[in-house]
């Protein structure tokens, strides 16, 4: 977990690898990139506008003639330098030098929040502004959505549910979706707002996802709930295994999506 090496002039350096957990409101961020020489390996890349309640990353930190930082000191120091940024480090752990935040993850969980009966953003409480997809519909056929979600669970070629990207040729489109669940949620201000806002949460869990896969699955399920897409049509999209088979403008917007959890194998750690 700690490695020391002798360098020119007999100066001793000590370095350690850390796994950090962090959260952010992704509205104004395009990506999380370090501005210094530290190489940060993030477990899950999120689209512009997507949020996280718990993402994770690892990096190596070297100090000159001093032992590695204690985890709590590192968390405090990182948050101090983040200052007013809408990013917070929640905890940190020393990990073995061969640990990798991305490749050691055994599952990732995303939650998509939908608010019903909202014609425009300004009608949402500030606590939910840009943190859910507001729909004019007052109702969705949740039963049909759950039937549709069940069709997506399991191992499939999800090519139709990935957006075109530069790394498409290098990504295996076959993924195993372990969970696709739809449950009632609530506004973050439900106890203090002047009216109830129907909120639904769509939860997806898999070891990994394709580019924009969750947003495309969400958009398709909502279309089913609105009666715009039938179950046979959904199956047709899935079986086409072609990103061009996915209807234009159906994908859910980024601002309703949260990465909520990253679980790791053989380490006992979870984000």
Write a brief structural summary.
Keywords: Isomerase, tRNA processing. The chain has 271 residues and is of the alpha+beta class.
Keywords:
single chain, 271 residues, alpha+beta, Alpha-Beta Plaits, 11-stranded mixed beta sheet, 4 helices, 11 strands, 17% helix, disordered N terminus
Provide an overview of this structure.
The protein has 271 residues and is α+β, with helices and mostly antiparallel strands. It has two domains: 15-103, Alpha-Beta Plaits (2-Layer Sandwich); 106-263, Alpha-Beta Plaits. Helix content is 17%, strand content 33%. Strands 1, 2, 3, 4, 5, 6, 7, 8, 9, 10 and 11 form an eleven-stranded mixed sheet that branches. α2 (142-152) packs antiparallel against α3 (213-225) and α2 (142-152) runs parallel beside α4. The relative contact order is 0.19. Mean pLDDT is 89; it is low at 1-12.
